[in-house]
Predict the 3D structure of the following.
Amino acid sequence: MYQLLAYIKYWLLSVDEHSLHSPFLYKCYTEVVKSKSNTRDPAIEELRKQLLRNDTIVEIEEMGAGSRVNSSNSRKISEIAKHSATPTRFSLLLLRIIQQYDFKGIVELGTSLGLNTAYLAKSNEEVKVTTFEGSGTIAGLANQHFEQLGLSNIEVVIGNIDQTLETWLATASPIDLAYLDANHRYEPTIRYFELLLPKINQQGMIILDDIHWSKEMNLAWNELKNHPQVSLSIDLFEGGILFLNPEIPKDQYILSF
Ligand SMILES: C[S@@+](CC[C@H](N)C(=O)[O-])C[C@H]1O[C@@H](n2cnc3c(N)ncnc32)[C@H](O)[C@@H]1O
């Protein structure tokens, strides 16, 4: 019910290119957000189909919103693929962003089976994707998928992000794009954002998934889009883009996607 009301509000408030006056935003919207320049990757989509049909049961250490951290759980692989994966059209948008802005250092919080990670990594060979996953079982499956897809530019950091992120960031190279799709709660979202912020390049972005999934996530989104270091924010309902470049005029948009 919450998500339905949030969608109605988004639908009523969202605008398109006719309402955009900033040349930067107009170009970003027409050439990146709404562009159809890239298409589904046949190998990744074939893997998605196989996973959606795979009823093998795996024991996972479940983490994130709505679950007890580190509790043990049995899940069908098909269920994980159905409920966790970023929709392909959003993965394609992330891919277009990486290509348009020539991003190289990518961080993803929340690997799951690695379908979205694969899209991030296939953008080009110079891209280095570091993806974080709490469940060792799921991370193992994701690593198998990367091997199967011939992707060698991905590193999976296994363990609870509450512990692994800060340690990893201490020696990490600068980041161009961070995609947060793990722990969909208010407090960790804000905490991970603050941890990542000093490492993001000036031209970089932080993208949050599921910004209207719950009141908590909505609250986190509202707070972060007003963060003093965020210049432009774009709400696409499925996710939200936060630009950090201070040269972009400060503004907030809800755009149809
Ligand atoms: C929504 S799924 C990620 C989907 C993935 N980005 C994709 O599009 O295929 C969220 C993942 O984050 C992991 N996760 C949630 N909270 C976590 C935490 N605190 N530490 C590590 N991983 C976590 C879950 O195990 C789950 O696999």
Observations:
- Residues 66-70 have pLDDT under 50 and may be disordered.
- The longest strand covers residues 200-209.
